[in-house]
Amino acid sequence: MTLSRFAAALFCVMALQPLAAGAAQPDAFPTRPVRLLSPFPAGSGPDAVARMVGEQLSKDWGQAVVVEPRPGGNGFISMEAVRRAAATGYDLGVVDVGHMAINPSLFRKLPYDPVKDYVPVGGLYRTSFFVVVSSGSPVKSVAELIAAAKSSPGKVTYGSWAVGSPGHLGAAQVEAATGTQMLHVPFKDTAQLYAAVANGEVTWALGSYATAGALIQAGKLRVLAVADGQRSSALPDVPTLEEAGGPRGVDASTWVALVAPAGTPAERVEAISRAVRAALDVPEVKARMATFGFVPAAVPGATVSEWMRKDTPRYAEMVRRTGATTD
Asked: What is the dihedral of CA 160, 166, 169, 172, to 10 degrees?
């Protein structure tokens, strides 16, 4: 090979090196499986939605998206795992209003900081709560429920699945807005709670379509209103509290979202957020979520941050008013 040909060949090799390096280290995401760490038990509503979205993301990304339930410990087990995960976007957390907006007031020693330890990626869904009573209850309307509570302070009971849960503090909003005094009765889980309402052991409770829908459809629970500012697509004929003659301004809806560990690059968070929003917009995913009464929340992380800023002081007031604590 002549010197000129050798120099030309060397120039070509050197020119192609950056391209080869770029191909070896692609900027695409993801290049390996992604985990969704969840504090919710397998088979629950949030778990089901996480799996729906994960399946769609797997199709879109060409990489496995694994939902890993880590229930227990008031959600602290999962929240700690997300907090300690590498800030790369390959480990994300499934959270709800309780973890991000209620727990700071409910626990004096919260082992994580919802604002400092995580960055919101985007919403997954929102859902409304309905005011439900036994189908055999003498209470036929919201007006009758309020009248009964006013005439017999402390006698009307409402149940929830846990002290400080959205169901407990949402019902407390109704109590505060009506100027009544009612007795809170906590249960171990939603199955026990709604069975107790259906049997007349407690007067009423707040229930989502996902948790109380089966008993509503079976005719064992009567729905009086939706505790939200607008009607629910799950039961569009059910009036809001205000429309049913109850107080205005009560918002007992709840939300579920995705977060990443603090320090995850903003461009990576935005890329994941766009992918999640696209997955939530797939007709099949929407249809499957509708069977639970869930409304897809295809919003960016900034909107989730706004939900937190709005809900944290509102629930703090309800925690203070009820004296709820789990410490």
From this structure: -70
